[in-house]
Amino acid sequence: MTDSTTIPQAPPQDDVPSRKLMVTLAGAGAVAGLMIVFVYGWTQPTIKAYKARMLAAAVQEVLRMPASYDTLYVHQGRLVDQLPDGVSAADLEAVYLGYDADGSRIGFAIAAGEPGFQDIIGLIFGYDHNDGKVLGMKVLESKETPGLGDKIEKDADFVGQFEGALIPLLGVKARNASGDPHEIDMITGATISSRTIIRTINNAIERFGPMFDAYYEGTGP
Amino acid sequence: MRQTTPQMDFLRGIWRENPVLIQMLGLCPALAVTNTVANSIAMGVATFFVLLGSSLLVSTFKRWVPHEVRISTYVLIIATFVTIADMLLEAVVPTVHKALGAFVGLIVVNCMILSRQEAFASKQPIGRSLLDAAGTGFGFILALLMMGAVREVLGNGTFLGISLFGPNFEPWVIMILPPGGFLTLGLWLLVLSWIQRRRAESAKVADWPAGVAQRRAA
User: What ipTM was assigned to the predicted interfaces of this complex?
Assistant: First the structure.
């Protein structure tokens, strides 16, 4: 060895048997796991019930207070009203078909999401398939910039425009609308967020439109 | 080691050694989620709960935890309480939980909590550790409230969602955006150090006649 420097040795340590270290960590981990499992079991029903309630309220809102609604599942590219055997509802995408008091169809409520400015913007919207018309839109989940992007859910003027707008939606600069029912005024300072909403709805209809056609053909108008 | 009274253990965390305003710990949540008063309160209470629970366990089991694995054990304990706080928030106040987003999970790495375990709870009896944790936790809530109140009032014109100035107020949006957090924290630190300096100066002035008298006598 030509190098004369010596590698400093670690100072001698008090011997704690490694068994004791392992037992301590394993014990702490087991206690931690038990506590979490207990709280999980205790809070999960409340969390699930809340989510279901929020979804039901959102469906009511975007379909303009239907008298009743059915849940339709997307299974192998088709809409089915019964859960296929051996598949749980949590694994399937669902849309909601609302009826008025006479039992005629109002439209579908569709939940969809696409990346916005910060994170996925999740929304639900009502859609009348006969007229190709949006009935209402509600943002379910968004982390958009407070004060700017979050206007997509807080600005009543913006949200209100979706009622009666025709598919495909077309975003235009604020106050530049020509009165065309396809047009949506975007929010100044929240262009990306506004555009995401419009794109999400258009893409969802592009995807679900053929399924709705097939469903209407299969079940009568 | 400096001796302290139980009363001091509790009180010093609130103001004299406030975790955010004096020790500059836990700045990440203090900057990120104080855009409204409601978020500040929820974040403060969640952190308070984690701090109190962790201090209780760390202080209780300090005798059995070997020195080599103490940090891992503290982090494990803290992470457990954070997970519990996260699930409780989601069950009890789902809207606030949504607004806090990832920052509840990030309480795990809040150095304010780890520092209380390492510096205090791992060496002191249970009662004192709980007092210390409660004091620090209240200090944290206080600091977040000071930030949240300024930011919500200026940035949104509301306090706890109640409109203060009527519809003609033009909100100062930058205050609820991330830069507003830095501005508000800087302003509070400025105000506090200004008060401190004034106090130190007036104490000097009060001492002056005595000092002069001494010098004259000499």
Answer: 0.75
